[in-house]
Specification:
Chain B: InterPro entries: Ig-like_fold (IPR013783). Chain B: This is Carboxypeptidase regulatory-like domain-containing protein. Chain B: Keywords: Signal. The structure holds 2 protein chains of 2 kinds. Chain A is mainly β. Chain A has a single domain, classed as Sandwich (Immunoglobulin-like), CATH 2.60.40. Helix content of chain A is 5%, strand content 45%. Chain A contains 1 helix and 20 strands. Chain B has a single domain, classed as Sandwich (Immunoglobulin-like), CATH 2.60.40.1930. Helices cover 18% and strands 41% of the residues of chain B. Chain B contains 1 helix and 7 strands. The relative contact order of chain B is 0.21. About 15% of the residues of chain B have low confidence. The chains are: A mainly beta, B alpha+beta. Chains A and B meet through loops of A and strand 1 and strand 2 of B.
């Protein structure tokens, strides 16, 4: 009997689902009619379950690359001066995160805005590894496209093949995973739905879930890139979707420990009404 | 046969023309807060609005200013006294009107 209980315990322990880490760079709307003040939340968490929120290491970089029209030159604006530390509350704990209150002048012009957050490596004690998720969120003002499809020049990044701010539910979203500018074949991607969206005006997730996962494999879906580094995901529900390419960055070590340098990209879908 | 070729060519022209008009004109203006107003233009396919005619009219429809979008698809002008409206005129069906009351800093 003891042996059975022990076996059960072990099974339960090992069965703890490995929910995926996702660095969020969040603001409620990313397809804006006109430029406005923005409040962006930078949170390192598990978005499907709104589970354990990690204490972010000090943010290394936060900037935006904007472009109005396809012929225009991209413009880089550093945003670190607007960044402040906050405490983010998930359903299970609270963790150190950041917010950036951006004045309208930053996102006043029409065009695309590719926001880039480079967090410091986070030490994951259970796995004894560092995780650094270099994250992009693309916003548009006024419907005039710009640089949404251009690589930003990050060590690793997901370059969209579809506008990340203009997706209908039921469509697909495609992209290419790059490492030092080159496509990564057979890369592992995790896909997760933001199932408990942030409560507006607060630093917390809403308690109610939108969807229920019938099996742990649906919490974090796994896909792979093809031999050209491309991937396609379907979009079954409106809202925010996170994509994370695992360990595709060139840096593999930090302070003597293994480092997983990941690329994260967010896109948003809306229902056709 | 010749007729068919002509027809096909014609159909081709019509199709090409409709494709060229499948974009939407876009224009947005801001009050710079220093007595000037900046308007930015473009098209929904990302193409430039350089050369697009710009008009500023008063409440009676009199043209106060006219000019065109620069190489960078923008147009700056001195803010007129009283009510005014900005017109981005990229041709028939491609005109945008922005009332001065909606142009803020």
């Amino acid at each position: 009997m003891k042996r059975i209980i022990l076996a059960l315990c072990l099974t339960l322990l090992t069965a703890v689902p490995a929910f995926a880490h996702f660095q969020m760079v969040y603001t409620p709307e990313i397809a804006l009619d006109e430029g406005t003040d923005l409040n962006m939340k930078l949170v390192f968490t598990h978005p499907f379950e709104a589970g354990h929120t990690m204490d972010m290491a000090p943010l290394q970089e936060f900037y935006v690359i904007s472009q109005r029209g396809e012929a225009a030159e991209p413009k880089k604006t550093d945003l670190m001066e607007y960044v402040e530390k906050i405490t983010w509350t998930s359903l299970t704990n609270s963790g150190a995160a950041y917010e950036a209150k951006l004045p309208r002048k930053v996102v006043r012009s029409m065009g695309d805005y590719v926001f880039v957050a480079v967090p410091g490596p986070y030490y994951e004690e259970e796995e004894e590894i560092y995780i650094q998720q270099i994250t992009k969120t693309v916003l548009n003002v006024g419907g005039l496209p710009g640089n949404w499809a251009d690589p930003v020049g990050l060590p690793t990044e997901i370059v969209p093949l579809d506008k990340p701010y203009a997706n209908w539910t039921g469509g697909v979203f495609r992209g290419v995973v790059l490492s030092e500018g080159k496509p990564v074949a057979n890369a592992d991607l995790e896909v997760e739905f933001m199932n408990h969206p942030p409560v507006e005006g607060k630093n917390e997730f809403q308690k109610e879930a939108i969807a229920e996962a019938p099996h742990d494999a649906f919490v974090t879906m796994g896909i792979k890139t093809n031999d050209r580094g491309e991937f396609t995901v379907g979009i079954p529900h409106a809202g925010w979707w996170g994509l994370c390419a695992l360990g595709t960055g060139p840096q593999t070590e930090h302070e003597g420990k293994e480092l997983s340098q990941d690329a994260v990209l967010w896109f948003k879908a809306v229902d056709m009404k | 046969m010749r007729k068919l070729i002509t027809l096909t060519l014609l159909a081709g022209f019509v199709f090409a023309a409709s494709v060229a008009f499948a974009h939407t004109p876009l224009c947005s203006c801001f009050d710079n807060g220093d007595g000037t107003v900046l308007c930015e233009g473009g098209f929904s396919d990302g193409s430039s609005a350089a050369g697009v005619k710009m008009y500023v009219k008063d409440s009676s429809g009199n043209v106060l200013l006219e000019g065109q979008m620069s190489e960078n698809s923008d147009f700056e002008f001195d803010k007129p006294e009283g009510d005014y409206t900005v017109y981005f005129d990229a041709g028939e069906g491609h005109v945008i009107e922005i009332p001065g009351s909606k142009i803020v800093e």
